[in-house]
């Protein structure tokens, strides 16, 4: 009788250890993943130092295009899920167009000719977000 009791007790202790280990591993994984979360999903489009608009790239479900006024011409910007690009620009160098699609948070896109820049931020800062 005592041996049956000890066997049951051992099984329960092993189950508690297994469940505790799984719980500890889950918590550890959640903490580690929170450090590597995707950041900078807000694209901030500026004309010189003035913010024109903010776009939450994480909420873009379909590719869409819009224009912003630069110093010398309109600049066509395209957005899709987590990506943005300057699709068309009348500037002579086309450096900004040649950047192609940039993933949120990678690097800013600058069109010096038209004074348009696109930066990334995690926080929308309370301004209007198009998306």
General description of the model:
- By secondary structure, the protein is α+β, with helices and mostly antiparallel strands.
- It folds into two domains: 1-37; 42-130, Sandwich (mini-chromosome maintenance (MCM) complex, domain 2).
- It has helices spanning 2-35, 95-98; strands spanning 42-47, 50-56, 64-69, 74-80, 83-88, 102-103, 109-111, 116-121, 129-130.
- The strands form two sheets. It has a five-stranded mixed sheet, with no helix packed on it. Strands 3-4-5-6 form a four-stranded antiparallel sheet.
- A hairpin with a 2-residue loop joins strand 4 (74-80) and strand 5 (83-88).
- The longest helix has 34 residues, at 2-35.
Helix content: 25-40%
Major beta-sheet overview: 5 strands, mixed
Total count of helical runs of at least 4 residues: 2
Separation, N- and C-terminal Cα atoms: 69 Å
The strands making up the biggest β-sheet line up spatially as 7-8-1-2-9
CATH topology of the largest domain: mini-chromosome maintenance (MCM) complex, domain 2
Q: Which CATH class of the largest domain is shown?
A: Mainly Beta
- What is the annotated CATH architecture of the largest domain? Sandwich
Average pLDDT: 83
The CATH superfamily name of the largest domain is N-utilization substance G protein NusG, insert domain
Number of domains: 2
Q: Tell me what portion of residues adopts beta-strand conformation.
A: 25-35%
* Strand segment tally: 9
Give the helices and strands as they follow along the chain: HEEEEEHEEEE
Any low-confidence stretches, pLDDT <50, length ≥5?
A: 124-131
Radius of gyration: 25 Å
What structural class is derived from the secondary structure elements?
alpha+beta
Mass-distribution shape? rod-shaped
């Amino acid at each position: 009788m005592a041996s049956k009791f000890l066997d049951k007790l051992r099984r329960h202790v092993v189950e508690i250890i297994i469940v505790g280990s799984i719980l500890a591993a889950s918590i550890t994984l959640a903490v580690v993943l929170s450090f590597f979360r995707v950041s900078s999903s807000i694209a901030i489009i500026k004309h010189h130092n003035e913010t024109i608009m903010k776009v939450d790239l994480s909420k873009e479900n379909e590719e869409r295009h819009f224009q912003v006024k630069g110093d010398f011409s309109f600049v066509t910007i395209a957005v899709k899920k987590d990506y943005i690009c300057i699709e068309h620009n009348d500037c002579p160098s086309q450096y900004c167009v040649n950047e192609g699609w940039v993933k949120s948070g990678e690097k800013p896109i600058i069109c010096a000719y038209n004074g348009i820049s696109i930066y990334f931020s995690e926080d929308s800062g309370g301004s209007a977000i198009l998306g």
